[in-house]
Amino acid sequence: MKKRKTILITGGAGFIGSHVVRLFVTKYPDYQIVNLDKLTYAGNLENLKDIEDRPNYTFVRGDIVDRPFLMELFEKYRFDGVIHLAAESHVDRSILNPLAFIETNIIGTVNLLDAARRTWGEQLDDKLFYHVSTDEVYGSLGETGYFTEETPYDPRSPYSASKAGSDHMVRAWHHTYGLPVVLSNCSNNYGPCQFPEKLIPLVINNIKHNKPLPIYGDGKYTRDWLWVVDHAEAIDLIFHKGKVGETYNIGGNNEWKNIDLVEKLCDIMDELLGRPAGSSRRLITFVKDRPGHDRRYAIDAGKIRRELGWQPTISAEEGLRLTAKWYLENEDWLNNVTSGAYQQYYESQYRERIAE
Ligand code: NAD
Ligand code: DAU
Fold first, then answer.
1. Distance (Å, rounded) from C-alpha 220 to C-alpha 74?
2. 166, 148, 144, 64: which is closest to 108 by C-alpha?
3. Is 2 a residue whose pLDDT tops 50?
4. Which of 6, 247, 306, 342 shows a CA-CA span of 20 to 30 A to 263?
5. pLDDT tens readout for residues 219-269
6. Which domain holds residue 91?
7. Residue 136 belongs to a domain
8. Confidence band (pLDDT; 50, 70, 90) for 356?
9. 105 in ligand 2 pocket by Cβ < 6 Å?
């Protein structure tokens, strides 16, 4: 697929988006990559310092909720492809402020679909709208079983419901207007540049500062963790080789109960910080549960493995160690994102939970 040259990546200053932008900018020097990001609290241009001067990279600050702005952007660049990652992405924030999730995740996605449809018109050869979604749209699993591409949608948080809504819109634009689309639904990512509201970087930051490690409920909630670079590689494969109209599940085949994962991280951090073995585990604090907390997510990634030859590349041990090291070595990055507004967020989210 050589003709798709000017590509819009939305949310490219965020966690996963920055890894996708880096991969495309470095791997495809003949592509023009335009990164559109609002730079919310989760967007950070520091994530892309190493590639910001590349001639095939352009950053545009803007909001996908702003329709006239998007239409102008599409007219200006005449994109051949869109990889849409921009979203409000944190479940706990969606419980505090659901409207922001409806606006960005649903309205913003519809605006992008509409801008693509209007700009592309009938000229759809080699065009593609790729929507990046989550396994949370499938709901919650019991002790056994896996999410496949056929699992019925059953979202249960404002975040997952807004992502489910956006997925339905993408499929509606495909079936109704013939827009060439592809979707993927991925499990929990981890790695460098993840905002420390999410479990792994939050725990690493708290261990560093000897603060309590908040574990929701009984700690036996289960997630399937994937190294973020493996997700970026999967996105590259699907963008270039995926079948139009199809959905691909992406997962790490790497299930952990939260408490086991946090204990593992404690041990790695003790070693890296030269602290006595077992000292970080003493910070573990069971706290009030997340409302509507999904018990278990687990992805069957058989389709992308069989059809596109993708599989995760690194072990959990290796990935967690690399992640912990990255946060320790990038102290300025961590200090910058955990000052100011982060402290207020942390207070509002954890003060009561930890006091109980
Ligand atoms: P993130 O919160 O780290 O980054 C989101 C980015 O989107 C930020 O840079 C933010 O500034 C930008 N953004 C937010 N609202 C915007 C708007 N209105 N207009 C333009 N830009 C806006 O998120 P992430 O964890 O990197 O997730 C990226 C995508 O992948 C999301 O769609 C998410 O649903 C999906 N996803 C995430 C995971 C995960 O584990 N993090 C797993 C599966 C799927
Ligand atoms: O499954 C994919 C999804 O994974 C993505 O779509 C979301 O964008 C991403 O945020 C993530 O959602 P989770 O809710 O699973 O991730 P989070 O890191 O918030 O929480 C992981 C688990 O850890 C979950 O069971 C809740 C628990 N948790 C989380 C935090 C922040 C705690 O026990 N304590 C905490 O302080």
1. 46
2. 64
3. no
4. 342
5. 999 999 999 999 999 999 999 999 999 999 999 999 999 999 999 999 999
6. 6-191+225-250
7. yes
8. low
9. no
Ligand 2 geometric centre to CA of 214 (Å) = 12
Asked whether 16 lines ligand 1 (CB < 6 A), one says: yes
Mutate to test the pocket of ligand 1, among 9, 15, 132, 169 (most ligand atoms within 8 A of CB): 15
231 within some domain: yes
Question: What is the C-alpha to C-alpha distance for residues 259 and 220, in angstroms, rounded to an integer?
Answer: 6
Catalytic residue among 31, 57, 146, 159: 159
Q: Tell me the pLDDT tens digit for each residue of 28-82.
A: 999 999 999 999 999 999 999 999 999 999 999 999 999 999 999 999 999 999 9
- Is the separation of the CB atoms in 246 and 182 below 8 Å? yes
Q: Which of 112, 53, 45 is nearest to 337 (CA)?
A: 45
Which residue's alpha carbon is nearest to atom 15 within ligand 1? 87
Residue 136 appears among annotated catalytic residues: yes
Q: Establish if 145 belongs to a structural domain.
A: yes
Confidence of residue 166 (pLDDT cuts 50, 70, 90): very high
* Binding site membership of 112 for ligand 1 (Cβ less than 6 Å): no
pLDDT tens string 106-162: 999 999 999 999 999 999 999 999 999 999 999 999 999 999 999 999 999 999 999
Ligand 1 nearest-atom number relative to CA 104? 18
Can you give the CATH number for the domain in which 50 is found? Answer: 3.40.50.720
Adjacent-strand bridge partners of 37: 61
Alpha-carbon separation of residue 353 from 184, 223, 285, 348 (angstroms): 34, 21, 10, 9
63 lines ligand 1 (CB under 6 A): yes
Q: Is the CB of 35 under 6 A from ligand 1?
A: no
327 belongs to the catalytic site: no
Angle at 236 between CA 232 and CA 239, to 5 degrees: 130
Report the domain count for the chain.
Answer: 1
- Cβ–ligand 2 distance for 221 under 6 Å, the answer yes
- Using the mean position of ligand 1's atoms as its centre, give its distance from the Cα of residue 271 in Å: 32
CB 17 within 8 A of CB 86: yes
In this predicted structure, the answer to whether residue 355 has a pLDDT above a threshold of 90 is no
Residue 41 within any structural domain of the chain: yes
Supply the mean pLDDT for the chain.
Answer: 97
